[in-house]
């Protein structure tokens, strides 16, 4: 008998919970009962209840124990060390954003801003039109774009005023004739969990993209 009652109660509760969850995930957020949870987390249970009391009664509430006390969260005060050492530069003072990489090199790389386009490969990550668009954007603001783990895309090189080629795992860029067309060389030591092992599988590259990668036909992958 107890087992029968237990199963009945469990079945009833399970059905009710399933219906409540199904309704919660279907209803619009503005009409959803779940809205109470983020609202409570944001304004606090006390404030939420007092707002509801004012709205229902239409009069100011009378707290029997007085107004709540809010202490300043001093532990959340953060200091910027550089501003403790010296005051920030005034707004009317011009700031030079140019930077030179490899000042001792024969041909250093000078950028107008200390921001560069990250290494994103043609074919493996981005399309040809996207790479050309990024090259145009980099040229417009006086910075460099990066080939990523790919070969030398002629249209990208011709569009970019400053172009960084990547000595990469796949061997797509790794020939002296391509180095001569670069403004700087980035050496790829690895890529996250993939490590430094080269990847030249047909699953990675196919169709017209394969022709653009300029694969070493005599290269042998260990």
UniProtKB/TrEMBL annotation:
Biological process, per Gene Ontology: glutamate biosynthetic process
What is the superkingdom listed in this entry's lineage? Bacteria
List, alphabetically, the InterPro entries matched: Aldolase_TIM (IPR013785), Glu_synthdom (IPR002932)
Q: Which Pfam families is this protein grouped with?
A: Glu_synthase (PF01645)
Q: Which residues form the Glutamate synthase domain?
A: 102-195
Q: Which GO terms describe its molecular function?
A: glutamate synthase activity
Tell me which family the UniProt entry assigns to this protein.
Answer: Belongs to the glutamate synthase family.
Q: What is this protein called?
A: Glutamate synthase domain-containing protein
Organism, as annotated: Collibacillus ludicampi
């Amino acid at each position: 008998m107890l087992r029968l009652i237990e199963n009945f109660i469990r079945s009833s509760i399970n059905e009710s919970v399933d219906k409540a969850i199904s309704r919660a995930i279907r209803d619009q957020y503005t009409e959803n009962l779940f809205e109470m949870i983020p609202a409570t987390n944001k304004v606090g249970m006390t404030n939420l209840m007092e707002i509801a009391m004012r709205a229902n009664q239409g009069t100011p509430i009378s707290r029997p124990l007085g107004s709540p006390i809010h202490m300043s969260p001093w532990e959340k005060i953060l200091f910027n060390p550089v501003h403790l050492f010296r005051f920030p530069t005034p707004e009317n003072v011009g700031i030079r954003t140019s930077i030179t990489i490899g000042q001792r090199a024969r041909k250093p790389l000078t950028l107008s801003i200390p921001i560069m386009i990250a290494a994103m490969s043609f074919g493996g990550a981005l399309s040809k039109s996207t790479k050309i668009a990024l090259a145009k954007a980099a040229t417009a603001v006086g910075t460099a774009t990066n080939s990523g783990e790919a070969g030398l895309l002629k249209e990208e090189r011709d569009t970019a005023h400053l172009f960084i080629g990547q000595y990469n795992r796949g061997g797509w860029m790794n020939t002296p004739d391509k180095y001569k067309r670069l403004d700087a060389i980035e050496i790829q030591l690895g890529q996250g969990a993939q490590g430094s092992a080269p990847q030249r599988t047909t699953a990675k590259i196919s169709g017209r993209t394969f022709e653009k990668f300029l694969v070493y036909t005599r290269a042998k992958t260990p």
